[in-house]
Amino acid sequence: PTIYVVTPTYARLVQKAELVRLSQTLLHVPKLHWVVVEDAAAPSALVASLLAQSGLRFTHLHAPTAPERRRRPGDPAWLRPRGAEQRNRALQWLRDTRAPAEPAVVYFADDDNTYSLRLFDEMRSTRRVAVWPVGLVGGLRFERPLVERGRVVGFHAAWKPERPFPLDMAGFAVALRLLLARPGARFDPRAERGYLESSLLRHLVSREQLEPKADNCTRVLVWHTRTEKPKMRQEEQLQREGLGSDPHVEV
Ligand code: UGA
Ligand code: MN
Prior knowledge:
With 251 residues, this protein is of the alpha/beta class. The chain has one domain (2-240): Spore Coat Polysaccharide Biosynthesis Protein SpsA, Chain A, CATH 3.90.550. Helix content is 26%, strand content 23%. The chain has 8 helices and 12 strands. The protein has helices at residues 15-26, 45-52, 84-97, 117-123, 176-181, 196-201, 214-217, 233-240; strands at residues 2-9, 32-38, 57-62, 104-108, 114-115, 129-131, 134-137, 140-148, 151-156, 172-175, 211-212, 222-223. It has a 7-stranded mixed sheet with strand order 3-2-1-4-10-6-11, sandwiched between helices. A 3-stranded antiparallel sheet has the order 7-8-9, with no helix packed on it. A two-stranded antiparallel sheet has the order 5-12. Strand 2, helix 2 and strand 3 (57-62) form a beta-alpha-beta unit. The longest helix has 14 residues, at 84-97. It is globular and about 65 Å long. The two termini are 35 Å apart. The structure holds uridine-5'-diphosphate-glucuronic acid and manganese (II) ion (MN). Manganese (II) ion is lined by residues 110, 112, 226.
């Protein structure tokens, strides 16, 4: 099966660094198609040329977050779901262009996480929805589904454990066939904090149907890493003096 990796991304200082790192991980994965969805009103030259030079099979989409749902200056990052409309745009593209008979798996890979190559081997055999642990998330060393006799019987999660699916976005993959069979399945951009993953999964499976991967969810193969925002004090100072770093150099 092909793996469709769906990545929402937005313009900020570290965007290119994140996408270069992720693209170079994905280059090691066979039969992969990268669906990159910019949170923007139009595709950017930076992302377009990065994709063209990446060596990956890719599709470049864009979908701006609705103005009323966009983060306002001073708002904390967690106030609204991030990447929801972009992932929905990718779902639409999959439904518009892919054949239900195509053997494929869809994985929602944020641009800032850290992915082991073994994770892609694990998810490729997904029949409906596969799940596995995610490191460094939910205020824990890791969150994970709890498995007994090969079945998911609960979750190790401490933050809002009452969620229908207390899983991070990085902790599951979905069979393309199932997504195409449930045209109403999408992310709810108005979902309450922490409920974005459940807003999709509740359309697709029951907890009992989840397929545990990564040695019955005993191995961490993906980490919810987050990149520090670079400080630009000197840059701003120099810019005020007309001596900022050359704006023609892409960073
Ligand atoms: C956590 C989860 O890991 C995300 O998958 C989930 O979307 C998010 O919470 C949520 O609940 O909304 P976190 O690390 O806090 O993630 O989120 P980010 O990494 O900042 O954003 C997730 C993805 O959306 C990234 O690929 C990012 O580039 C993209 N994004 C973020 C946008 O497209 N637009 C934005 O304004 C912000
Ligand atoms: Mn993140």
